[in-house]
Amino acid sequence: MDPLTQGVLGASLSQSASKKQHLVVAGVLGLLSGMAPDLDAFIRSESDPLLALEFHRQFTHSLLFIPIGSLICALFLYHLFSKRCGFSFKQSWLYCALGYGTHALLDSCTTYGTQLFWPLTNERYAWNTISIIDPVYTLPILILLVLATCMRAPWLARIAFLWALIYPTLGMIQRDRAEASGWQLAQERQHTPIRLEAKPSFANILVWKVVYETESRYYVDAVRVGTSVNTYPGESIAKLNVSRDLPWLDPDSQQAKDIERFRWFSNGYIAQDPTDALRIIDVRYSIVPNQMKALWSIKLSKAVDANTHVKYETHRDNTSESRQILFAMLTGNK
């Protein structure tokens, strides 16, 4: 999730557990600790662009790391300001732990993938119940927290945290409805998917991207699950076969290894970009949910040596046409 959402969620739980006189400091401790796990974004390498993908949402996001991560936050924030506000170190650590502990669970509600049980396993958990940015989720929490702080009313923070639980639950219901529609689409095409997933489109839980895999291809469709269900059949693309699609690539080269690293990050949903044979895309993400315009990819090169890494590229599909198509889906228009 975005840093603001992570911060206000952490603050909502810390304020919910605080006394009236501790509300402000508890909120600040929860806010800052709720954002702290994303400091792993600073782990990166100029020569290896995929290193950041491997470490983001890894050890700092593990449930097993919460005591350590929150302790680091408490040590820093206690001496920075909470000690001067009359807080004991134990109190500071408690509120930091509450804020820090919300982060990984919220990230797991998105589609990106979070290594909740590292180092026991590097499996990426993604429950696909909420978009990585969703104002309908964030704004009520933020407003209630501002009111709770101004009025010194912990009960408002508890309502904020209750909303933080209710909305992903609604997303779970919506996800299951979208998946059911996706299975129906696949059946109508006489396909038997190996796997099928539904993911919320940008900033809402009304329109979903359904991705499913057959023996040779990936299919993407959009589904609007409101009072009725509208489907928007989309595109398909061949699954990446390295030996077939990239016959020139040395299997022992760093680029070949990086493809497998990118495959792990993308949960296997990778394909060759139809507009660029040297680009490998993550088919899970696009602004328009029934299209293959990926938001990120890796770029290969035939002109580099065997030890050179791939390039990591991001793509922002912010055209007015894409926004209009998504808006039409949100409003239920064909």
Automatic annotation (TrEMBL):
<keyword id="KW-1133">Transmembrane helix</keyword>
<feature type="transmembrane region" description="Helical">
    <location>
        <begin position="125"/>
        <end position="148"/>
    </location>
</feature>
<protein>
    <submittedName>
        <fullName>Membrane-bound metal-dependent hydrolase</fullName>
    </submittedName>
</protein>
<dbReference type="InterPro" id="IPR007404">
    <property type="entry name" value="YdjM-like"/>
</dbReference>
<feature type="transmembrane region" description="Helical">
    <location>
        <begin position="63"/>
        <end position="81"/>
    </location>
</feature>
<dbReference type="Pfam" id="PF04307">
    <property type="entry name" value="YdjM"/>
</dbReference>
<feature type="transmembrane region" description="Helical">
    <location>
        <begin position="155"/>
        <end position="173"/>
    </location>
</feature>
<keyword id="KW-0472">Membrane</keyword>
<dbReference type="InterPro" id="IPR053170">
    <property type="entry name" value="Transcription_regulator"/>
</dbReference>
<keyword id="KW-0378">Hydrolase</keyword>
<keyword id="KW-0812">Transmembrane</keyword>
<feature type="transmembrane region" description="Helical">
    <location>
        <begin position="93"/>
        <end position="113"/>
    </location>
</feature>
<dbReference type="GO" id="GO:0016787">
    <property type="term" value="F:hydrolase activity"/>
</dbReference>
